[in-house]
């Protein structure tokens, strides 16, 4: 057999294996599914945002602050829940001011975002704000679990962001 006839299939095979290996590394690092490394590193930055510490004086933190990266949708998140006894409108008014003072821009308002009976909840944010954070757009949601029939008397703040733009309120 001639060396040229052997070298060509070996070279093509080696190149093919290199492409398959590179594709596998890309897919495992979040290229096809899940969070990218950059978004995983973004979660602690979101958790340190001062807006998550801001709350009306009559409210108290409930549980610990949480953060992570949503593998299903591929975005970083951080949040905090609070118990409240003041009127809901006062909570919304507080965050309208506090978020604006912290540089957040109001993106949407839906004071009572309860889903219709039997339908899926698409957006449960009563307030949604946006702000540049770490080279991407972060979204701050103020939401009430009671709108979904859960945990009346609590509200949540959640910040989401992704370097590929897949985050939202």
UniProtKB/TrEMBL annotation:
This is Lipoprotein. It comes from Streptomyces zaomyceticus.
């Amino acid at each position: 057999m001639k060396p040229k006839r052997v070298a060509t299939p070996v070279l093509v095979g080696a190149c093919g294996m290199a492409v398959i290996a590179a594709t596998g590394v890309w897919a495992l690092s979040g290229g096809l599914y899940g969070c990218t490394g950059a978004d995983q590193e973004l979660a602690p930055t979101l958790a340190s945002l001062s807006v998550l510490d801001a709350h009306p004086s009559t409210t108290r933190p409930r549980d610990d602050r949480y953060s992570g990266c949503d593998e299903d949708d591929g975005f970083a998140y951080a949040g905090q829940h609070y118990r409240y006894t003041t009127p809901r409108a006062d909570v919304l008014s507080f965050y309208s001011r506090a978020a604006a003072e912290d540089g957040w821009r109001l993106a949407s308002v839906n004071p009572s975002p309860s889903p219709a009976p039997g339908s899926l909840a698409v957006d449960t944010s009563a307030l949604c704000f946006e702000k540049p954070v770490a080279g991407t757009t972060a979204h701050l949601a103020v939401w009430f679990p009671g709108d979904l029939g859960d945990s009346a008397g609590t509200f949540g703040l959640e910040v989401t962001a992704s370097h590929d733009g897949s985050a939202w309120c």
